[in-house]
Amino acid sequence: MNKPLAYRMRPRSIDEVIGQQHLVGPGKIIRRMVTAKMLSSMILYGPPGTGKTSIASAIAGSTKYALRTVNAATDSKKDLEAVAAEAKLSGTVILLLDEIHRLTKPKQDFLLPHLENGRIILIGATTENPYIAISPAIRSRTQIFEVKPLNEAEIKLAIDRALADKERGLGQSKIELDPSAKNFLAQATHGDLRSVLNALELATKSTPTNQQGKIYLTLQIIEECLQHKALVQDKDGDAHYDVVSAFQKSIRGSDTDAALHYLARLLAAGDLISANRRLLTIAYEDIGLANPSAAAHTVAAVTAAEKIGLPEARIPLAAAVIELCLSPKSNAAISAIDQALTELKKGNYGEIPPYLKDAHYQGAKQLGHGLDYKYPHDFEHDWVAQQYLPSKLKNHSYFRPKGNSRYELALKERYQRLKTSQQQQLAALKSKIEKKDNS
């Protein structure tokens, strides 16, 4: 009974798994694997405490295969060798490889042949996005399943089981859990069952019995034992990417309150670097030409945040977030450069016109470089019609301004006016040259 309650209450079969019905429910993929005893290696990813280890334990219990646990970060290659030796002697072994995103190349190279021959069924567990953090060699040999946070009803079911189970849970004690405390446990942990059970066990062991011989757990006791009033994501975990994504999309969608919420989550995790980097990106990607001054203000806010650090950094960053949310939006700049890059990837680039090539070296004139170049500052309004794009692309247009603000509308009008003037004057010049050649 020295093992933690969360460990003792791990499911012994697939039927005891709480939550994750999209994977273990009737007719779903993992249940089908267990029923058919046709297990394949898999990676389970999701937030801490959501059941990755529990699913591995349930699979082993349902199939009667041996389950061995190795941590990719702290255990050595010898630990993997021991599992492989056991698999060779006894047949199939399920290997729960925790923190699989930290698997080193030597360990990976050792493991791959054993995955190929099927002696080891790998269940990798990670809080990070496997498509980002795990090597393609491992990914190609596994199925990837997302493990989701438990909902309130599922958390309450797990609490009830733990309180009732006399063999593995707390059923031997007379415990009365206040309904408000139970609701708090179900809500405040955001689907982290391990945190729920750890808090419940601590509260039980640290609370004396009352005159009726019961342990009465109040909301105040549970709050004190949980010490987890709000979700703060691990800045090195997969939730980090979700928060950053939601942060940018909230600003792009002009939802000031949501953006401030996600900024708070980044800052509460101490992740000032990600907040700063994302804000700078947003300022140019999503606001851009619609309000260039907002980008300048964001740079100033980020610079101030870097100099003063947390917690004061929250003040200039909040100001930047509010301004970006309420600014007009335009993605014309990122769309323009991405369109140009797409053309290049297709092989559309063509030859640079000779008069635009570098002429600042001896022999350039003999190559025809720089000849007939028209220096715009020698002409009225510092502009002259001249083809700058390669001939292959001369009619291409990448920049499509939206005119979502007065500033961008002015850019749009000037861009279109210059483009039209250039095309008309070049066409007239071409026609004049053709007439001269024909005469």
Structural topology:
Blueprint (H helix, E strand, L loop, with lengths): L4 H4 L12 H4 L4 H8 L5 E4 L6 H12 L2 E6 L5 H14 L2 E6 L6 H13 L2 E7 L3 H4 L2 H4 L3 E4 L5 H13 L10 E3 L1 H10 L4 H14 L8 E3 L1 H8 L11 H15 L3 H13 L3 H16 L4 H17 L5 H13 L5 H14 L60 H33 L1
Parallel strand pairs: 1-4, 1-5, 2-3, 3-4, 6-7
Distance between the termini: 105 Å
Output mean pLDDT. 88
Low-confidence stretches: 228-236
H-E order:
HHHEHEHEHEHHEHEHHEHHHHHHHH
CATH topology of the largest domain: Rossmann fold
The value of Rg in angstroms is 32 Å
Provide a descriptive summary of the structure in words.
It is a single chain. This protein has helices spanning 5-8, 21-24, 29-36, 52-63, 77-90, 105-117, 130-133, 136-139, 152-164, 179-188, 193-206, 219-226, 238-252, 256-268, 272-287, 292-308, 314-326, 332-345, 406-438; strands spanning 42-45, 66-71, 93-98, 120-126, 143-146, 175-177, 215-217. With 439 residues, the protein is an alpha/beta fold. A five-stranded parallel β-sheet has the order 2-3-4-1-5, with helices on both faces. It starts with a helix and ends with a helix.
Key terms for this structure?
439 residues, Rossmann fold, Helicase, Ruva Protein, domain 3, Zinc Finger, Delta Prime, domain 3, 5-stranded parallel beta sheet, two-stranded parallel ribbon, 52% helix, 8% strand, elongated, ATP-binding, ATP binding, ATP hydrolysis activity, MgsA_C, P-loop_NTPase
